[in-house]
Structures are given as C-alpha cells and as structure tokens.
Amino acid sequence: MAQKAAKWIWQHPDYPNFVYDEGILAPLISKIDYQRGVLDGIAKLFMQQELEKIEIDVLTDEAVHTSLIEGEVFQRESVRSSFRKKLDKDFENSGDNKYSTAVTDSLAAVLLDCSLNKEPLSVERLHGWHNALFENSYSRLEKIRIAQFREQDNMEVVSGAIGFEKVHYKAVPASKIEEDIERFLDYCQNSADNLYIKSAIAHLWFVSIHPYDDGNGRIARAITDYILSGSAKATRFKLYSISAAINKDRKGYYEILDRTTNLFINRNFDITPWLVWHLNTLQNALTDALQNIEYLVQKTKFWDAHRLQPLNERQIKVLNKLLDKGAQNFEGGLSTKKYIAMTKVSKATAVRDIAQLMSFGCIRQIEGTGGRNIRYMIDFSTS
Fold it and tell me: What is the pLDDT of residue 89?
C-alpha cells in the first residue's frame, strides 16, 4: 500500500529546520531597522507623561486587534482602562476606573508580561497566558483544557458552514506537542536569528504546533510581541502594534498561513513568502506608528498655540474630539448639527461657538463646502 503523501508542514522530514532566502529579506530588514531607529529617536523627544499615554494607546491597540483577528470584540474604553490601572499613577482619581472588566484586566496582564518580563519563555509561562485568556473552561459551546496542552489528536483548523467545512490545517499530534514545544522554547531563547525573522518564525512555528484547544493565534501573536519587545532600548514598550497591522490584512494573514503550512502548495518547504509578508506587516505597523506620533506632535503644537484662548468647555470638548479622531478621520468634517449633538446646546449657541473657533484660528472651513452643507476641520496652520 502506497504511503500517504505528507501534507502539513510538520510532516516534512526537515521540520522544524525551516528554509528561507535571507537575500530576499535583507532589504526589508534594513527598512525596518531604519524606521525603528526613527521611531525610537522621536520617542526621546516626549516627556515621560506624554510617552506613557502613547504606550497605553499602543498596548490598547494590540489588545483590541489581536482579539478582533479571532472575531472577539472588546470595548476600547474597557481595555484602555485596564492598562491605565496598571501604568497610570493618576488612574484611581480619574473617571476612567469604571470601565475595566475582569476579562480586559486579564488580557492586559498577558500583554504587559510580554513587554516587561524579559525572563525566558517556559511552558509554565505559556500556560499562565492561556489561563488569563480564558476565564472559564468553555470556548463558545465547547469545554476546553485551560493552561494545559490539548489531548485531541485530530486538531483541525476549519471554516465554512455545517456540511461544507473546509480544512485549512491539521495540527501536530498531541503525543508530539511536548517535544515540539521544548524545541520551540529553545529556539526562542537561544537562536541567533535576526530579531524580526525570529519573531516571524516563532509565530509560524507556534501556530503550526497549535498546542491548545483554543487561543493559539492570540498566544502566537503574544510571543511575537515578546520577541520584538526584547530589543526595546529607549522605552519600556514598543511603540507600534503588529496585531493592528495584521488585522488590516486579516484575509491575507490567514491565506499566507494556509499557503505556508500546506505542503501540497508549499512543496519546497520554503517559508520565505511568510517571512516577507510578516516583515512587510511589521513595516506597516512602524509606518502607522510614525504617522500617529507625528499627529500627536501636531496636536501638542495646536494646544500650545491656543493655550491662552478664552475657550469654553464645549469648545474644548469638540476640539479634543476632532483631534482625537485625527485630521483625516472625522468623517465629513465638523458641522453645526454634529456640534449640537456633541454639546447638547441650541443651534444659536452652536453657531456662535463655531464662529468664535473660526476667529481664534482653531478651525477652518473645508474647501468646497458652504451654505447648509458647510463643514469645518482643525486648522493646523496657526500652530
């Protein structure tokens, strides 16, 4: 009887000695190094309090988006509150302390451990992260093992309607998990691979093992975070969110994992395409971080320019809303109707407030709007 052809990446005789082309990756690594240097340099220009706010926002992005990738939705306010509880000394005196939940506190604990705890990864630590991600022993309708590797041999990643399921991947047999994890942890601790390549290989390797009944993707991204945070020199936390960048191309993420782990497609056992995708995604995360920080600098300059203006509480609230959304993100710009909705004032008061903001140079009319459709945006030209 003919032997069944190997289909999954762990069935290849060279696994886990992954094959890739360093020459293709070198230019990407240079770009990432450059952007990382620029980001770290800009971070040094901020006061500690300002930097802390950026760090909390980035951690919040990471937590929200790593969950969204798996289809789990958390309120941003709750997640941010959980991070502030741990990192902001003024948290208890703020109105923010009513939003956090036990679930978001646990998720925050995992990501803080990834960033701050430089001790080597261990089975116990992975189990601790898994325990934090699951507050009970159920994932949807199914009972799962918490803080223990799975016992199920036939672990498959499946999508599609009942009766029309598609198997994307079949994981390492349960009997081989402990041996594979031991090799994996040794790699994370002792490999001299470039940091960015190492984080991508660790990500792929962990999801290939798929050691838990659930939560493997989130823990794989936590491991990526842990490895990338190991090079942080200027700040306590890395100032970019790779999960946010992955979530922007969620379909591409799953497609490249499918193509890489399936030997019927990836016949040469070559993970270079996965590494290219992961490095490009990391570069996108750094680009987004630089844009966000540049905008924060712009926002700080704006308030420096208008600090002495006699603005009322309503105007400050609306300006902060516009600034928090970002110059390009407040859909349609500010209108009188939106101003009324945000401040609960009469139309006459709204018109007067807006006119005053215009005279102070805080906002300007958006070109091409007028009459009943007049719209306004933040005016950065005076800051």
Answer: 80
Angstrom CA distances, 220 to 90, 92, 188, 207, stand at 33, 33, 12, 6
The fold of the 308-382 domain, in CATH, is Arc Repressor Mutant, subunit A (1.10.10)
* Residues of the chain where predicted confidence (pLDDT) is lower than 70: 1-4, 93-98, 136-141, 231-236, 325-331, 383
**In whole angstroms, how far apart are CA 343 and each of 59, 116, 312, 321?**
30, 41, 11, 11
Residue 56 to residue 99: CA distance in whole angstroms: 15
* Global confidence as pTM: 0.84
Q: Which tokens belong to 174? A: 């349960």
Q: Where are the domains of the chain?
A: 18-295, 308-382
Closest CA to 114 of 243, 293, 279: 243
Backbone angles phi, psi at 86, to 5 degrees: -90, -25
Measure Cα distances from 348 to 37, 355, 359, 373 in Å: 50, 11, 17, 17
Tell whether omega for the bond before 120 is within 30 degrees of 0, i.e. cis.
Answer: no
One-character DSSP codes across 180-237: HHHHHHHHHHH--S-HHHHHHHHHHHHHHH--SSS-HHHHHHHHHHHHHHTT--SSSS
Q: Which CATH superfamily is domain 18-295 in?
A: Fido-like domain (1.10.3290.10)
Q: Is-contact 256 273, C-beta < 8 A?
A: yes
CA angle 322, 245, 236 (to 5 degrees): 80
Amino acid at 176: K
